């Protein structure tokens, strides 16, 4: 990425809307398109450039819309195509782009393509999905007879026996999300046609759901055993298969080539390495603009996401440092703490106790937005929304969480023990309604919300922060404005400092002789700044999160103290 002609998204900030939980306009307890349209001024005030819209297509909602039954219609729960067009027009009128969530590794089992495919072994769409006989020498339907030993992301096997034809179909996620067979050129053509339809409607790009899974090892080999389970790890055969780059390059040619340069594409790639991301985001290869990688959001996980471990800052620095260095000369980083699949950042990486919630939320935001890449703000992150309080497994709605509870309790686990593993890790932490104000249901709906509102909304909400110059919201506004204005923030070379310090995260960004120093105390322990970073003392404070506090001392890095300094 040369600083001569950087793409527009190198100075942009993306805001993710999870429509189901954002804002409900018709009182049915589910967020919708009109609700989003009614909040565009909030997004414009925040200063974001792009909205990534999680799926709003027609769907049975088995996985909250990531199971699509009609790619070219809006689910009635969210509204209509006319309302989508109105949202798009109003967003564009504010200079905000809309990016759709493209879920084409799989469809819903109610998609007409799958209904036709499953109808018979000789259906013209049979080969649009992955169908296989039972394992050699075993009767269909007996445990272990599945064609491979792979475990689904949502518990259980990756194969579902279809009684109609006696064959199994593949589903890496829920059994209601059958995987499309991208080896079939008809599938690819149908997907590209649908993508062009959305671009012709005026959308500004796509976030591509698990796009690194569309190419699989065609011989579908078993994966290495997963300890403590009867399953194997299918990622060896389903992540970054042999034709991925071919498919992404073909998609670029068939869909994006020759179009308005103001588009943006971001590929969600669980398991991505820096090397793979370099290939995918190298502009010369014309595949994708950037990727969502998962390294840093797995550092606090043991054998599984439910096996929560303490995070070491040095591990986080090593991971971010590797990605900053690896994409410094080729490609581009996406920067995020959370999204609709991850627990809330201030609870996971910060300290959501009353003493430090505001300071740690603003510290984390400064740290993330100081890096080189495109920052993503997840709905509610801009006001420091935290993980919710869950009193029972019945409070949860997410299929991944509920399937895990069913599997664990079937194996004899105590529901209370399971609940303890859900609290820090469940995706539902990110899916409680956005907290707009202190009224009942946080101003999200006038009806009964589909999932409980976090009780802390009475204090933590947009209305309480909008006019507060020291709020989490104000700090996000300032960070986004700084990215828009400052070329060193946008494009400056990254250099990690203090790599071995367990509490302080510091780095520089340099461009054309200008150097910024970002220093963040990711702890409640004060540190003398001069001892840590002598060059930091006396420099110009560009943006800080605690300099307004009475106990602020330039010479001491206070609890969760974050500063962006311009070195003289
Ligand atoms: O997520 C892909 C994915 O890997 C997630 O399942 C993630 O690893 C896991 O949830 C972490 O707990 C995408 C979407 O973001 C997710 O919402 C969907 O459920 C999934 O794909 C299937 O479409």
From TrEMBL:
It comes from the Bacteria. InterPro entries: GH, GH13_cat_dom, Glyco_hydro_b, Malt_amylase-like_C, O16G_dom_2. This is Alpha-glucosidase. Belongs to the glycosyl hydrolase 13 family. Residues 16-431 form the Glycosyl hydrolase family 13 catalytic domain. SUPFAM superfamilies: (Trans)glycosidases, Glycosyl hydrolase domain. CDD domains: AmyAc_SI_OligoGlu_DGase. It holds the Pfam family Alpha-amylase.
